[in-house]
Amino acid sequence: MTPDMFYLLVSILFSLGLIGLVSRRNLFIVYMSVELMLSSVNLLLATYSKVLGDANASAMALLMIAVVAAEAALFLAMIIHLYRAKQTIDSDRFDKLGEGRKHA
Amino acid sequence: MIGGSVAMILNKQTIYSAFGFLIAMIGVAGMFALLENRFLALAQIMVSVGAIVVLSMLTILTINAKEESLPHEPNKYKWILLSSVLVAPFTFLLYKTLSAAHRNFAQMETITSKVVGKALFSEWVLPFEIVSILLLTAMLGAIVIARKEEIVKTEEIIKKEENV
Fold first, then answer.
1. Domain A25-93 is in which class?
2. What's this model's pTM, rounded to 2 decimal places?
């Protein structure tokens, strides 16, 4: 077991989150992709904690987990609110700010 | 774990993606355990698996979106393929950059909660407090955002009356 394996895993997870973020339109999947990216960063912090033999990175990762929890609460509340407003979870339907532009 | 995340991206039904996400989160916790970081593994299981995934599944089931209110994505696989091709060099670059830094694990024993706790309450006290305030604010904000039902309803009624 080398750190390389973990680095590869972190890269792949982050990229999967990025792919899901840009290519899907379901709000829940967008949310889960963001969570996946944050988790991959957490994993990187834990890997560095092990590589450097230092607990500070672990403390940082722990704070990150708290931030992830706060983000989850806000995002889910926002999804509920958006769903109530328009009865859909399609992120392309929430384009009120772009109303000035031409619709394709 | 990677399979779980792929399933998360590909599935049409939201609840199946949530299951994929669950598998991915448990996998991350397992990776923490493999890194001999027990405290983080436990925290990951408790927060991500226990709270976040369950919360999102609850929200998905509460909303209970019908087939027609799910986004219509005819070119989904095309988009995913395109973005994968676009992201692949970035993945490679990320991997190369990360693995250039350190190649070996330091020789040390398990990072226990004792060590993490000491670091957290000596050098990381201020960030810790800020995070607690952030959590409180996020909780309040979530309640305020999710509660607006009555206001939205009155706005709808006003709109209907205007139309009539």
1. mainly alpha
2. 0.82
